[in-house]
Amino acid sequence: MLMDLVFTLFLGFLIAEIFALRRWKGKWRLAALIPLLLVGGILMRIALDPAQHYLLAFEALVWSSLSLAFLGVLALLRWGIEFSNRRRAR
């Protein structure tokens, strides 16, 4: 059951990341790269020394959740800024 949750969160993170990288431009795309680089770095560290990661499922759960939340906050910020810019342009 825990692995299903971890897999679902990680898959959701990857889908959100792909969506952000394909649709966003400029500084927003660079900001969306931050959680991808973070999770990629953690996965590389785990691949290099898997013996130190006994709670791999919990680590993946925490980092995927935090990265997905970061992307959500970025999306809200982006939407809010664009909304206020459109409102000012009227």
Description:
- α1 packs antiparallel against α2, α1 runs parallel beside α3 and α2 packs antiparallel against α3.
- This protein is mainly α.
- It contains three helices and no strands.
- The chain is elongated, with a radius of gyration of 16 Å.
- The chain has one domain.
- The longest helix has 34 residues, at 56-89.
- Keywords: Membrane, Transmembrane, Transmembrane helix.
- The chain crosses the membrane at residues 30-48, 60-81.
Give the termini separation: 51 Å
Largest sheet: none
Q: Strand content of the residues, in percent?
A: under 5%
Low-confidence segments: none
Give the fraction of residues assigned to helices: over 70%
Transmembrane segments: 30-48, 60-81
Keywords: Membrane, Transmembrane, Transmembrane helix
Q: Which tags fit this structure?
A:
single chain, about 90 residues, mainly alpha, 3 helices, about 85% helix, elongated
What is the fold's blueprint, element by element?
Layout: H1 2-23, H2 27-48, H3 56-89
Helix pairs in contact: 1-2, 1-3, 2-3
Summary?
By secondary structure, the protein is an all-alpha fold. 87% of the residues lie in helices and 0% in strands.
